[in-house]
């Protein structure tokens, strides 16, 4: 293919893929299958690799990531990103309205109302219609340049093609993690034995600052835009919103122009319950004077604009009776307590069950069956018990004692030092653990056997046909026909799906076998570093710690897994079945060795980084992350609200305790 032919084909593919992206993300329509879309994208990637000089500025291949950002540059905002004043009451809102009226000296005015989304504020700069920069809010004056990560968000246009687009303009928006994506992300973390993320907002914030844009793309962030800035673009805020819609930006269709404060209050009341149906968390309403000229006339205080205010909804909490506590056993054996509640309507849904997290929370709340408990949804999406209405406690109620035996198989529970959860150690005899491992094995991110499902696995287990993943590969047609509702075609599809899974790459197979703490990303890193299952099985803890993304907790878990004879037997059976246990993928290059194999424990809350992000930075720069403080530890990286026990132990052992700023100095090659 000549360069001219390649240019024509690249342009055609770019336009076609962008068209289908816009159709899917802006208009909720599809004209081609996912497989057809992926084939177009792969064809474009191949051509761009062969002719890199012909890659378009709005190439959709940027959506899948691939770039590594070692440090995020600080960028000054052209227009400061000021915070808004908050109010929680109608009276304060009416007082603010009176100040607006006074400031406008009797001129007529109207308001524009938008829901206040609980995400990460972002500034997007476009030049000649091309997205050139995405910057976080930071301190309002300057933020971090996260452009590579922002390009992976499919609802953000890489190129605006309308004819009336100015040479330069800025768009403000809120980057968020959709509720369904957040729930799935937490399910995956639970599945590998990791703690759940606390809320969608903090998870989105950490994702935006990840160094590897490929990992960002996997998180499926989204963005609603709410502001357009530039020279002589519009006369009202409403007009600017209409332009953003016409230019292909993702504007939430929840806004409303209001003639007066009474209409504003009605909008607030209307959305108090409706907002629960939206794909992201909301915590209030933003009210703006619609006229941009009047906004300029009203001006700003030192911290916020006088022409806008945020009305914050109060956290929705309700009291209901605790009828009991049940216990669920997960794939890793973790036993999770669940509150069984008198049904109550909360935040748009009827709530019958709520999370109790672990034994520590039950003890801390001093819970008793029959108590009236407060239940919230908040930013965590899943209902949770937050407190006890002690005034309603009846005399004689007995404090709940956490169970000591597995609720399914009766095995005595164990609790590892430093962990909140209790575990059932009967990994090969506890039904939910066995079924859970098989369900994990066949899921899309693992072996991707879509002809199998939870109910089919349950039947196979109860018929004594499948007691481990390896049993799937010895199933026969007559076995499948024993399943309820299975005929010749469904049996054939089941066996065909299992056979097809034998070609699944080693990276996915390693994730599928279900080693505790080994998620999809860690499995990929281990597979690419060690190249084969045999080398991983033979590795010592010290060897495992040298692999990217692997800390003390993961290394110990992997090592122990391969010491278990039952696990060795299962791997041998899977090998015999013909699964892939060697990797052909290359491990991405490390960014630097500036941390010189130094070990870190991360504890507390940090100003500019999420803990997962700090772990990633350490590993990519040649360091190691471990889970506990010992005399061999090089640094305790201490944030705010760090538990006192780790600090005391570090001080006692003479371990160097460093701050966030100290850590940044280490990254630049300084010694401490």
TrEMBL record:
Cofactor: Mg(2+); Mn(2+)
Binding site for Zn(2+): 406, 409, 424, 430
The keyword Cytoplasm is assigned to this record: no
Superkingdom field: Bacteria
Gene Ontology MF: a single term: DNA binding
Residue intervals of the BRCT domain: 590-672
Active site, renumbered: 116 (n6-amp-lysine intermediate)
A GO biological process held by the record: DNA replication
Pfam families reported for this sequence: BRCT, DNA_ligase_aden, DNA_ligase_ZBD, HHH_2, OB_DNA_ligase
Catalysed reactions listed for this entry: NAD(+) + (deoxyribonucleotide)n-3'-hydroxyl + 5'-phospho-(deoxyribonucleotide)m = (deoxyribonucleotide)n+m + AMP + beta-nicotinamide D-nucleotide
Keywords, alphabetical: DNA damage, DNA repair, DNA replication, Ligase, Magnesium, Manganese, Metal-binding, NAD, Zinc
Binding residues annotated for NAD(+), in chain numbering: 34-38, 83-84, 114, 137, 174, 288, 312
GO cellular component entries: cytosol
Signal peptide, first to last residue: none
EC number: 6.5.1.2
Family affiliation: Belongs to the NAD-dependent DNA ligase family. LigA subfamily.
Function statement: DNA ligase that catalyzes the formation of phosphodiester linkages between 5'-phosphoryl and 3'-hydroxyl groups in double-stranded DNA using NAD as a coenzyme and as the energy source for the reaction. It is essential for DNA replication and repair of damaged DNA.
Protein name in UniProt: DNA ligase
Organism: Ohtaekwangia koreensis
